[in-house]
């Protein structure tokens, strides 16, 4: 009789709390594991838009259905409104990379203020509200952060560079650096404008090789807006 009561009590306890506890624990582990398994990369492109290279890059991103973030030089955006529109229409994200790519280290307070005010105005005229700012060369002066805050923006740097702007590099070297240096969650900084000796063409060629490899490894590509959520 006592044994029967004991067995019933154990069964009640098992179904009431022990089993559900283990069930929720295992579910939690699954969610956590799934989160870790999700592999993401953030492709970002500085120094454009460029009338020659940016459309080729957009074709490549379209081919693989990848969204990226373009940190634009406002002056170049103003010169290429059709490309800016295409970038928007194809679901990419646009950030700011100064008005004319001057190094903030050597700029006065009034120029820094002009740099932000003028570039934001140009982007707004193009129908783009910019929330993320990447300083040219990553350089700031003591007024840069004030301007970033004043305009309710956020400063974004990078985790991975592949020195794709260099005139003596090759697409293979760039691709190799990209694959070796990128890991889950990396913000990758590349260039679709400026650069020496047709540099962006090597960047695009490097991506033609790297993207299928990343895709095979299970990487997904997100835009900067997804980063801080
Ligand atoms: Zn730049």
Characterization of this structure:
This protein is an alpha/beta fold. The strands form 2 sheets. Strands 1, 2, 3, 6, 7 and 8 form a 6-stranded parallel sheet that branches. A two-stranded parallel sheet has the order 4-5. α7 links the parallel β6 and β7. α2 packs parallel to α8 and α7 crosses α8. It is globular, with a radius of gyration of 24 Å. It binds zinc ion.
| Strand tally | 8
Distinct helical segment count: 9
Tell me the β content: 5-15%
Please give the alpha-carbon distance between the first and last residues. Answer: 59 Å
Structural class by sheet pairing and helices? alpha/beta
The rough form would be described as globular
Segments where pLDDT lies below 50 for 5+ residues?
Answer: 15-35
Mean pLDDT, all residues = 89
